[in-house]
Amino acid sequence: MNPRGTRVRRARRAPRSVWLAAGAVVLAGTGVTAVAVTGGSEGTGADDNSRPAKAHTLALDGKDAKQRELPRTETQLFSLVGVSWEDSADVFEGTAQIRTRSADDGTWTDWRDLDFDIRAPESQEGDDSGVRGASEPLWVGPSDAVEARVVAGGKETAVPQALRLDMIDPGETDTGKGQGKGSGTDKSSARPKKTDTAVPSPSATGPGTAPSTAPEPTGASSEPAEAPATDQPASPTAPAPSGEATEEPQEPTAEPSAPAPSQEPTAEPSAPTEDPTASTPPATEEPTEEPQEPTAEPSAPAPGQEPTAEPSAAPTGEPPTQPSAQPDPAESTGPTAPAAPAIVSRADWGADESLVADPPSYLDKVDAVFVHHTAGTNSYDCAESPAIIRAILTYHVKTNGWNDIGYNFFVDKCGTVFEGRAGGVDKPVRGAHTYGFNGYSSGVSLLGDYENGGTPTPAAKQAIADVSAWKLGLHGVDPEAKVTLTAAGDTGVYKTGEKATLNTVSGHRDGFATLCPGATLYSALPEIRRTAGASVYAH
């Protein structure tokens, strides 16, 4: 276990019994049992038109110890698929291939390989008895039938025990924030359907802003536009870093000192004009009384310096006060921190918070950012991004057995940034993304496959640079510098206890033996680091 990340633990099996309501369904003509594990919708803020995500499993049984096959089998609706097995310590060597049938037109896909780059966290979270070994999940879109084959390879003489196919239906959400409904696709009247019209290219004045095809990020108010129809869409026009709308600049200033339209002035008409920018209730401290809290740590490396010792001390298990002195983990770090890029909150992409049994654990500092890709497909529409992330959350919790989604942030090809693991975007939340280095870092994952021909869009690269610059800047870390970290596990690149000198913005493969984040995204990292260094969100 890495000593730098601690957790206040509580019993996990009891809370999960709430959502482990399983029903067995024998699929006609197959003799295979599908178990549907349904998550509750409590805490999602969803209305009666919403339904929670669901996980379905099919046991991959057979007499041949070296391989398993599942014939074409009709299933309940799903949009994401992977394989898993009982022992997370059993690292599978071999191939797993699946093909699926579209629920829309009934066509079957070609065979597709599943990747095996997931490792359980090197912490108490990864030691839980319910943690399973698993492949990376693959987004396939709404599907209603599947075929699979798994073959042991290399030194493996048998497939893992309790091998099964895991299928995730992301459910439907309607948060009232521009996020729509759909099985595998979020649609709403605020977001036009996919067309052949490309989204206008940005002018580099709004890095990190959310495109119009995704839920409106916190602090952003730009109007929606069409979703891109191609694999490599043009980047959307983004608002200024302040988050103010640029299409209708005069409306917000029509009556700057007037109360809301549904309210009438009270006996104290001068109150709204005393501090029109105040965002906290009167009971809290005034934002100008603690302007220096976020910069209280003078020991953080200056830009361009390369620390050679252990970057930070062991955490206490509670959110550190350096990034934010506010009691609410979701609040910003204070007036001296760099402005945050627009980030779609968990509530806005429809996270089912009832799945998360334990509170988050925190690091004392974020020393590096690791860049990932989700693999899967690049042909998704950006309106599907929330559904993809909901499906990954469900897979990481119900299939892998983790406490929450592994990545700290997601970015889609339109340049939208999404909040990942819960705990506060401005807090050093410990994630589960880079085995051996989770205790020092934040993980940013780009939706799509950048190993097999996909190319990251300019909007995506800008968004990765901006969120990395901002996150590292909260801790005084230069995104163009290097840092020396100690591996907390055997990663295939480093042995436990070995010192690793890495870029503060690195690829997953720099710390762990994997192809992630894919060849084209990895080759873009030098550009992303330079862009991060020049970002308006850099400290």
Automatic annotation (TrEMBL):
Residues 251-285, 293-303 have a biased composition (Low complexity). It comes from the Bacteria. Keywords: Hydrolase, Signal. Residues 198-212 have a biased composition (Polar residues). The keyword Signal applies. One of its GO terms (molecular function) is N-acetylmuramoyl-L-alanine amidase activity. InterPro entries: Amidase/PGRP_sf (IPR036505), Amidase_domain (IPR002502), PGRP (IPR015510), PGRP_domain_met/bac (IPR006619). Its EC number is 3.5.1.28. SUPFAM superfamilies: N-acetylmuramoyl-L-alanine amidase-like. Residues 341-490 form the Peptidoglycan recognition protein family domain. Residues 161-339 are annotated as: Disordered. It is an enzyme of class 3 (hydrolase). Residues 1-36 form the signal peptide. Belongs to the N-acetylmuramoyl-L-alanine amidase 2 family. This is N-acetylmuramoyl-L-alanine amidase.
